[in-house]
Amino acid sequence: MNPLRYLAPPRPFTDISTSTTKEIKERICYVDAMKANPHFKISEDRDEALFDYLESCHTLTNGSPTNEERQAAQACIREYEKSLENNEPARLSFDLATKVKLGEELDNLWNMWLFNRYEKYLPEDIAKAAKSHPSSQVSDPWHKAFWTPFSGRLEAEKASFDKVLVGQNYHNDCPTFLLLALLCERHSLDWDETLQLIKACASEGDKVDLPAVDLVDFLKKRDVAGLATRLDRDEASISLSTEYIMGVGSWSGRLLSSSLGGMHGTKSDAIGVAGEGLDGLDGEHEHGKEGDEDLEGDHVDWRETFISN
What segment(s) does the record annotate as region Disordered (predicted)? Predict the structure, then answer.
């Protein structure tokens, strides 16, 4: 059975004159997704046209525009969507079931990565209970059966999506990338790291070679900004789902509150706490040497460990 069967192909946006507010907001989500992509580099003229398109969508969804304003906004939207055509209208509208399915898979993907990186910092009672939970016994925790064919689609579409990123009209040749971009923006996920994780899950065999990220390394290198960015990304990616991942549930409460010991505020909060930890490092704790024992041992409050070291 095809694991991607729940991902339906996109359709063109409905004509703007008959679009509901929800359908207009779909257009806004498309723009947000493209502008959020770190590799989106279009010409100045195209960027201005995209901005006008976005503003026109906002005009129709915010307040009560006059008839003249409505007509001008609709004309702008039609003109821009016409400019995206390449023999046929660009198909940019994904149904709800498709977005929900990929959203759930992305939540699992990032939560699994978080679990693998933060597991050793979990409080002992949570770690012990997790081992006996049914979700710890699943045969495919990384959902490799889903990500392997999904990654295959990405590989086939990459050349077309690269063209879209520089302003060329190849949208209909890369629907999987467009869907992924939409959900990464919606779930506040880092684009490049998501692609790395998907590629890792598509590798042969049961092993998943994850991107190398170690919070301890940030501290030993006195990389306060890097640590703050890492914590910011991790917090932003945490799913509010009630699903359990490897026996651990309620990620936003249990994992961050218990494991990070309160270091899950704003980026400035993270910088402040990281700075405290850095002040305590004497520069002699090299990787694999003194100082690692406390971090690798029993489940502890790692903020206290960092500061005390």
Answer: 280-300
Pair 178, 271 in one domain:
no
Tell me: do 240 and 163 sit in the same domain: no
Q: What is the pLDDT of residues 99-112, one digit of tens each?
A: 999 999 998 898 88
Q: Are 105 and 151 in contact (CB under 8 A)?
A: no
My answer on whether 236 and 167 are in the same domain is no
Per residue in 53-96, pLDDT (tens digit) is: 999 999 999 978 999 999 999 999 999 999 999 989 999 999 99
Task: Tell me how many helices (H) and strands (E) the chain has.
Answer: 13, 2
Ramachandran angles phi, psi of 24, nearest 5°: -70, -40
* Helix axes 175-186 and 96-118, enclosed angle (nearest 10): 60
pTM of the prediction? 0.75
Tokens representing residue 34 in the block: 């493209």
Which residues neighbour 217 within 8 Å (Cβ) at sequence distance 6 or greater? 223, 287
- Total structural domains in the chain? 3
For residue 166, give the nearest of 50, 46, 81, 49 by alpha carbon.
46
DSSP bridge partners of 91: 12
> Where do the H-state alpha helices sit in 62-208?
67-83, 96-118, 124-131, 144-165, 175-186, 191-201
Of the pLDDT bands very low, low, confident and very high (cuts 50, 70, 90), residue 267 is very low
